[in-house]
What does this fold into?
Amino acid sequence: MNLKHWTLLGLGVLAFVGCAKKPKPEPVAEPQPPRMEQPEAPRAEPPKVDEEALRRQRIQARIAEVFKPIYFGYDQATLSAEGQSTLQEIGKLMKEVPEITARVEGHTDERGSNDYNLALGERRAKSVNDYLASYGIQGTRLSTISYGEEKPAMEGHDEGSWAKNRRVEFTTTF
Amino acid sequence: MNSSTQGNSNMHNTSAASSHKRSLVRLSGTRVLASAALAFCLAGLAPSRAAAADVVITSENKGAESLSLGFLDFKCTKGDANSLPYSPGTVIAWDLDFSGRFKIKTAPQFDSTSKGIFKGDGALAYVRGEYTLEGDNFTLSCELIDIDTQERILGKKYSGKKAELRQSAHKFSDELTYQLFGEKGIAQSRIVYVNKRGGNKEISVMDYDGSSVTEITKNKSINLMPCWVEGKSKLVYTSYAGGQPQFYLKDLESGKNAVYFTSKGMNTSPGWNKMDKEIVYASTMDGNTEIYRRTFPDGKAQRLTFFGSIETSPSWSPNGYEIVFISDRGGKPMVYVMDRDGSNMRALTHDGDYFGSPSWSPKGDRIAFTTMDEGNNMNIMTISPDGKDPAKLTTQAGSNENPSWSPDGRHLVFMSTRTGSPEIFMMNADGTNQKRISFSGGNYMPKWSDY
It folds into this structure.
């Protein structure tokens, strides 16, 4: 399953937890029953499968948190300090969880020619791929693809949108 | 050429023997049409190239001149004209006007008024035509008539299925161009392009005048950089349908569409060399985006560039000796030329900082490419292959990209965002007569077919 699905699932779980945590407005007239007097419900031992599911869920949440897009300067494929620190987090997680593999997807803004931008997107993906490889991630766990300017994250025609489109995104499997 | 038939649409000559009587028909100040020689052509006696050249007095500067012609509305003599969304006469008039070779004056019929108008415009002949529509079938008759003598200079008849009527009209336009200028016309050429369809990018083909759109891919993926190979019969394009961007080959005659070949990495930017039946393209098969060539269809990839920088957008010179392409080995994407084996590389552009999409004219005399202006928009320029005489062709608002030459080298098709969304436009090779030909919203990467 890819990251997007898991991200959605993760958000769903978060939303659920968020709702559950919300304090309910309590009716003023009703006194709160003293907690201590409640009889303890017998607690069943959780089956092992659930623990594994929980672990996976935890890792999915980490993946969603850590695999953030890497942004680039105009016509550039060099990694910024911020990009490098994001990649270190990604590298750390990938080392911690050897089952994670990542597809590194290079993108550009709309300026310039489509052909060149496909090559530039490839160069960005390669730059990220090489950084992770030098961090110690096996090449077999990484693949690259370029979309050039063909899959913008934002449709606008201004620097705000362009800056968001000059990026490398990840699709992970776990 | 007169005896050729294509599809179900048949062409017949009508005699122009009477023009033997006249030794010369003077059609314009500089062009003299020797009608005896023309009649020889029309009789289907397979004129040699030399004989054809006798028909037309060549002019030093064809591009700057145009021949005035009168043009009568075509008459539907049988069937319902309104059952067609166009009149074949309108199709022909558009062709002649667009070609830039003709100056057309239209009139509903030939009478003293229209005669005066035609002659006042310098015309010495006019086009008239009739057509019939019966069931699925059509007939079309087109003639070129001498204004003064009312003699027929050229006559053609076509018949076939209604769906082919438009092509027959284009055929007559090309016939006129060939007979009067001795050069092939482009009225039967087509444009392949990328069309944004429901969030996907699919390949479509249309006639060069924007009509008869055919959807080539429907794979709901990203399909890019279509390129005509082997005339108008096949297309090579890059598709993400199988995940990684690889080449697909569509055979328009058999309808077969399949992966062409795959390699490691991605294969993009195909360019066709009709002299040697080769494609040149960009690939990351060895890690970096470099240029390769390959005999079509089954040759071995031969790598041409080894710089470690980005090398892409290759386009052949029409004689197949050289390749123009983009490289950013100097820091910014610039236009370079190299020999077909990768040797003798030289920079074509020096000033400016961002160039793209070079395309070599089929005549060999110009190279079109794009350059970025201060407002981050691309504009189209042409330059001589020796780097001299640069000319800027677009200065409109919006970005103007992906220039591709008409097979006769007289026009360019390109993408422009000047109306808001990317659409296909055309213009003359000198930048005049810019015309929008796609209207569906989101069309780009056009490539003009062969004749």
